[in-house]
Every structure is written in C-alpha cells, then in structure tokens.
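Subject: mismatched residue count in predicted assembly?

I count 809 residues in my input, but I want to confirm that the predicted structure covers every chain. Input:
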Amino acid sequence: MASMDAISRNLMLDSLKEYAKRRIPYDLIRELDEKNEFPAEILKEMYQHDVLGLHLLMVPAEYGGVSGGTFDIYRVCELLARIDLGIATGVFATFLGTDPLNVGGTEEQKEKWLKRIASENLLVAYGATEADAGSDLVNLRTRAEHVVKNGKIVGYNLTGNKQWISNGGVADLYTILAMAPGGPCWFLVERDMEGFSPNKHEDKHGIRLSNTAGLSLDNVYVPAENLIGMEEGKGLLQAQAVFGYTRVMVAAFGLGAGEEAIEQAIRYSQQRIQGGGPLSDKQGYTHKLIVPNYVRMEGARAYIEYTSQRLDSGEHGLQTEGAIAKYGASEWGNKAADDAIQALGGYGYTKDFPVEKIKRDIKITCIYEGTSEVLEMTIYRGRWQEHLKSRGRYYLDMADRLDRAHAEEPRAGCHAAALALRALAAVLEECRVQKLTRHQHVTFKLGKLICAAETAAIFSEAAAAKKYSETVRFDREGWQAMSRVFAREAALNTALEGLALVLGAVDTAGNLADAVNIEAIQTEQKGMIADMDLVAAKLKQTFKAK
Amino acid sequence: MHIAVMIKQVPDSTEVKINPETGTLIRAGVPSILNPYDHFALEAALELKKKHGFKLSVISMGPPQAKSVVQLALALGADEGVLLSDMAFAGSDTWATSYALAKGIKKIGKVDIIFCGMQAIDGDTAQTGPGVAQQLGIPQITFCEHVDVDGRRVLARKQIDGGHELLEARPPVLLTMIMGKDYAPKHPSFLAVNGSLKKPFHVWSAADIGAEAQYLGLKGSPTQVDKIYPPPQREKAAMFSGSGQEGVEKILSVLRGENFLGE
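Triage response: the counts match. Full output below for your records.
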C-alpha cells in the first residue's frame, strides 16, 4: 500500500502524541513496568474508532481501515517506541498477526476477518515461535491434522505449543503457524476455541508492559475456511514475504527508543553543571556519549525511510534491506540507550529517569523479528549473491553513484561513503579469492560491515538531496555534518575491520591494504572534530533543556 | 445558521528560540501547531454545530503547509475548509490580514457567527479578530469563555477583571475566545483524519477573493517588525510559604547553607 499524504500522517501522529501525554504518563508506565502488567484498557482504548483507531492503520480502506503504507507505519512505530516499547509491542503484535491475512488471505477471508479486526477492535497475536523453532522455523512441531467428513477435508485439529508470543495471553484472535500434511500453513484461531489456552505471562527483562505468553493447543478444531490462503504449504513463504516490511517496524522501534534516550541525555546535559560549565559544552562528554550515537540513529532513519519508500512504491520482498534497516537501528539504538545511562550518570542508573527502562526495553529489538546474528547472516547472504552476480561490481557501481552525488553536493559525506563502499568491495573480493566465507565468523562480520557502509551511502545521498524528508529536524548544515561524521566512521571501520578480518584468516592479505585505500580514508578524517562540534551545537539547539 | 472559524498555524512556542545575533526566530525543526486559542474557538463552534446542526466553515491564511490546521479542523468536524494562500499575502500585518480574511469570509457566503482565538501565540497582538469585525462592519465580543445560541440570540460569557459579563448579540457577530474551562481541545481519530480528505477544501488566491494588492502584504501593512529579541533572563527565585516566623527560618537556613552568614 502506498503511504498517505504527509499532512494526514502528521495529524495522526499528533493525535497519538496527545493521547499518550494525557493517558500514559511516565509515572503510570513505571508502575506498570514494576508490576509487569499489560495495560489492556489502554490498548483497547487506543483501538476505539472515536479515540484513535490505531489498528486501522494496518487494514485497507475497503475493509474499514485507513490503508497505512510502510512509511506511515514506520512513523507510528517510532512514536509508539518513544512512548513505551512494551505498548508498542502490543500494537505491533496486532499488525504482525494481521500480516499473514493481508499477504496470503483469500478475498473472502479478508472480507470476513479484516473487517472483524477493524470493526470489533480485535487484539491479534502472531503465533510462530516454538521451543525448537525460533529463527529456524523448519523444526516446527505444531501439527495440523486433517478432519475429513464424507471424503472432504472440513477442518484441522491443531496440536502443539507456542512460546514467547506477544499478546499471547490477551489476544482475541491468533494466527498460528502449524505443519499440515501439505506443509506449513497459517490458521486463524479464536481465543474461545476448545482446547486452546494461553500459558502464564513471562517475567521479562524489559518491555514489561507487553504481554508475552506461551500457547497450548490441544486438538483444537479449526474449520477449513480458517486456513489462510486455503492452500497448504504456503506458510513459510507467507511469513517471509513480509520480513522486509515487518523488520522495518522493529527498526523503527530501535530508532524511536534509541533517539528518545539520547534526546533525554541531550536535554539533561545542558542542566548538569560540572567543572564550571554544562556537560553539553564538554567534548569529552558530547563527542563520546552523544554525537556518535545520534549520528548513527539518523543514519538508521535514512535507511529505514529508503526501504519504506521502496516498499510503498510497490517493490516486494526487500529482505536484505529490511534486515539492514533493523540490524542497524536496533544495534545502534541499544548502544545509544546504554550510553544515555552513562550520560545521566547516577541518575541514569535509577528508575526515576526513563533511560534506565529504555535500556532494558530496547534490547528486545536485537532479538525479536530476527536476532542480530540471524540478520548478519541474512545481510551477508543477500549481498554476497549480488557481489558474485555482478562480478564484484555491486558496491563499485554504488560507489560510482556516490561519486556523482559528491560532484553535485560535496558537503554530504558522499565521498567518504564511496570510499567505504570501495573498501567493502575490496574486502568481499579478497574473501572470495581466498575462499574465506567458509568461516561463519567472516560471513557474519561481513554482514555487519555491509550494514554500516550501505547505510553511509544512503544517509549521504539523503543529505545531498535538494529536498529533505519531513522527519529531518535539523537545517542542512547540521544534517550534512551528521552524514559526514557517519560516512567517515563507516569508511574507517570498513577498511580497518575488513583488513583485520581477512588477516585473521590467512597468512597474507595480498595487496588488500592498498585496495581498501586506507590512506585516502585516513585523509578523509580531516575535519571530524569540527563536524562533531557542529553536531553537538545543533543537537543542543534542537533539544533544549526543559 | 452558518459559523466560520478563523484559525492560524503557529510555531509551537515552547520550542522556539531566538537567534540573539540576527534577531530572527530559529524555525528549523520547530513543529507547527494550531494556535491554542483558535483550538478553543473551534471547539466552541463544534459544540454549537453539534447542538444546533449549524454549518461550520473554517478559514486560515498562510503558506501552503498551513493546510495542515485546516485539515485538522475538518477532521474534528468542520464541514468546509478554506486556505487563503498567495505570495501577495506575505508580510501582511494584522490590518492587512484582517482585510484578506474579511474578503475570504465574504466569499464563503452569508456567515452568522465568526469565531477566532483571542490572540495567536506567535504575535500576541489580539488585533486580527477585532480587525475582521471592523472590516466587515459587524459587532464583536472579545475574551469570551462560553458561547451559546438561543434562536436568533447569541449569548456570550465574557471574562473581565474579577468576574464575567453576560452579553447578547444579534448575528452577524464576531467572537474572540479565551482558553477557558468550558471547552477542551480534542484531537481526531485516524478514521476522522482519513475522512477529512473527502470534505470540501479550497485554496483561494488574492484574485479569488477580490482583494486589492495595495491593501495586502508589506505594502498594505502600516506596522513593520523592526526587531525580535528575547527578554533578559531573570535569576531564579525561590518561593517560601508559611507563617512569618517559618519564612524567616527558611530564609536563614538557605543563607546559612550558602555560607552568607559566616561561621
């Protein structure tokens, strides 16, 4: 679905912001976090059509929704994560649970179930994970056996156990992945079906406002018309078809929670006077704890928007892009939240300040919807194929594109990003020549390097563009300083870590040191401190002390 | 009856800073909002619409992005939206703005009650509402905290120093609203925002409303802003409450703590 116009989107975001301000103050969140309690009333109220109707974002207009596109959903997810990642997860579970229907449902199924989800404000849960089937769904144990009457399959009996299901204990409707004789498939299971029961609510490290529970299915009879798509064996494809898109949502969680933590630290740093002045004026503080984190979050944002816009324009899949978006946003967001605690010192370590909770919450973004390690592998696999198919040209072509952008706009870090991409191409090629991808460690590490270099490219291009996204809260000077800082860091890390990676696996790395062009990358570091000074000043200006 | 509400998009003043060197507002990254006073005016009008079934039009003047506040009003229940947008309006002071808005309201049609906020939080002049009443040659009641309609009588409760004044007017009349306790600004649901796209929305230029160029923009504005600067910051004051004796003790303890009284 294409996204809506910016005005409509921003009016919806304002309504959500106002609602949260009024109904979900931090004191309440803190209390629920301590009690490990799911705020059912708030979720239900947010779904009410005359209050917000939040779930309608996922439902096409013809079934009573508002037809949100990926960009819209990314923005709402980012804001929800800024409010509370547990509540965000509760909403996300409905989005995710609705996905198999949106992707694989027949017209009759959509007509019936999407309309019900929209009009009855159903909380939905997505039941895929099992004890032995997490990232790897091949070991799926939940069975769906045919129920035959008069020689015709009239239904299925579902038996098995699911675990770590968001909204597991509170949903009205569940989409359950089970192995039928014809292969894995999704079934629509209603809460009151006989033999179906949720287990206890988990006691988690973070996102404690999200209900997480296991599910027991003991010979649950499900009519044949509840088999999504009315065809067996399509389940894994239906799940994978939306990975690009669902991972953008979790990426938006990492972005929202991570930026929120750093913004709180920026506001705090202007009031905390130590050593004769505010912390916000001290490079030892800003250039370590604030600037690099914020810059990485803005890089993640640029990549999320790039992927969202491609999905909104009708491209399908984009699994590698979704993986890059989520891996970057969640890993950098986690680091940002960690540094936000450090930035608040003793205060940050107490529960009086939200950064402590954000740090516990955000960790989940590195785990659910594909762990960081699974994503490193996904990213590597996707781009390794591109590298081979293009005979090593994939990143060289992208670097040429960045050179052209640099010629048009030399202040956006495109040159540094091009250096990062060329260094990456050289490292990938050396790995191919020396057959180093036989080491799993090498492949995963390549995934990490690819994420940073590609994000640098996308961020620099966005910062070089004539018109900025509606989400950019800085002037041109400030945002370009950010993209330069990001690109320089990416270039340096790609070259140094890539070189170290190859040297760790072989006796000699040929002329890789020359190929990654370490000298040019070092020269490119010129101006880094001045740029970081500028970014620190812009951040202070934008996020003033309250 | 037909109600028109005049609304304005303003920068969220809690986020605005002034550049001390250039004397201009730093607008980068500052969100724009519906002027809070206008939000109350809109709520008062929506309540009358709900109660009496009146038609409700909203009108704003501003750059194309000011469409946002008009769409917000439509999502909240207004029937029709108008945005006066034209480079010819740029730089208008309150007088030129009143002239353009009055022309726009005339084009909307026969309007019985015009609502607006008492003032906008960016300029704080409180002149535009009265200016429109003057341009249209109709009566006005300012500082209203509550408005009702009984037949052809418009009943307004106006805030005055130390109390209220109850006033009655025959339409057409213009009312400026304060942010009182009787109305609570609302925000639309996602469905309502989506639905607002289907309501009539017009963008009118100076030519569309028959406004003459000499009365618009900088040329038509008797007032020019010379400079904007932040007021000097005051030192933080500590406030103590309690009896005289308690107060003295609190002050003494602070002075001792700061070592003002010596050992």
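The interface with chain A takes residues 15, 17, 26, 28-29, 33, 67-68, 71-72, 75, 187-194, 196-197 of chain B (CB under 8 Å). Marking this ticket as 'not a bug'.
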